[in-house]
Amino acid sequence: MKRLKASYGCPVELALDFVGGKWKTVILARLKEEPHRYAELRARIGGISDKVLTERLKDLERLELVEKRSAADASIVYHLTDRGESLRPVLEALYRWGDHAAGALPVTVRRG
Predict the structure, then answer these.
(1) Which has fewest Cβ within 10 Å: 24, 28, 65, 99?
(2) Which SUPFAM superfamilies does the entry mention (predicted)?
(3) Given strand 36-37, what is the order of strands in its sheet?
(4) Pairing relation of β-strands 66-70 and 36-37?
(5) Given 1.10.3210.10, 3.40.1410.10, 1.10.10.10, 1.10.510.40, which CATH number is that of 11-104?
(6) Which of 9, 86, 32 is nearest to 41 (CA)?
(7) 3-state DSSP call for residue 78?
(8) Under 8 Å between Cβ of 39 and 50
């Protein structure tokens, strides 16, 4: 993960350092739905490699957006932190925008 800069030109620039890139946002969107184990995330996010998923989860942990917790069966489950939860309205807005845009474009969007 790149280090955060000491100074930003605007708040959007800082926000994009946190969630910029395709995979971080997709991971956060999946965790917004509910906590997931690694294998569940891997199955729900098509096209991401194990290496990239592992790296992005570590990035999101360092940024204190995601945390690992032990489940009752001793497995590890990824959850949004309070900081991650604060992105919920942003993620929901991106979902709505993408859903609306998909209706006007020659694309298919998998749901679920």
Answers:
(1) 99
(2) Winged helix' DNA-binding domain
(3) 36-37, 76-80, 66-70
(4) unpaired
(5) 1.10.10.10
(6) 32
(7) strand
(8) no
